[in-house]
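To whoever is on call:

I kicked off a structure prediction for a single chain this morning and the downstream step that reads the tokens threw a length-mismatch warning. I double-checked the sequence; it's 170 residues and nothing unusual in it as far as I can see. Pasting both halves so you can look.
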Amino acid sequence: MTQAMDDRGIRLDRMRYVKNTASSRLCYLAILLNVLYFVSIYKSDVGSWYYQILVGGSIVYNLLFMLMTFLASEGVKNYRRNFSLLLYALGALQAARIFILPLQAHGAVVKIGGAETAVMGTAQFVRCVVYLAGSAACLIAAGIINQRKADALKSLDGNTGNGTAGKEAA
């Protein structure tokens, strides 16, 4: 065997004992960006526009998102491949959220004291889009990294006949 193949084998074998911190940290970053989005969008209270069922649903989604992302971050630490699918779904939902509440708020105008006021200015809209897009990118990247590492670990276990980590990754 060549030195490069030995180094790769050692690196893969080491994965059995080392947690997948790259994917886990990307999940934490996605949660942080979601919190920044949450604070950014709800800090502005323009008239009664934010008092609607869509905002209530968004608050519930934020709570569920943070819970599911944290649980996924714990799952990807052990190279569990199924959590990659959850991260892909959460990333897609974060990207889709750009077109729901922020886009509607950016185009909405309310009358306050007889004067028309924009619900969300352009700067706040761009900030919300950056937070949601960054969160989505972190989740999808975490899913890709975890899937690749889980597949590599599973193939290593298939070659050595040891099925312990392969069962975790599946």
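Update from on-call: the warning came from a stale cache, not from the record. Cleared it. Sanity check on the structure: Residues 122-160 form the longest helix (39 residues).
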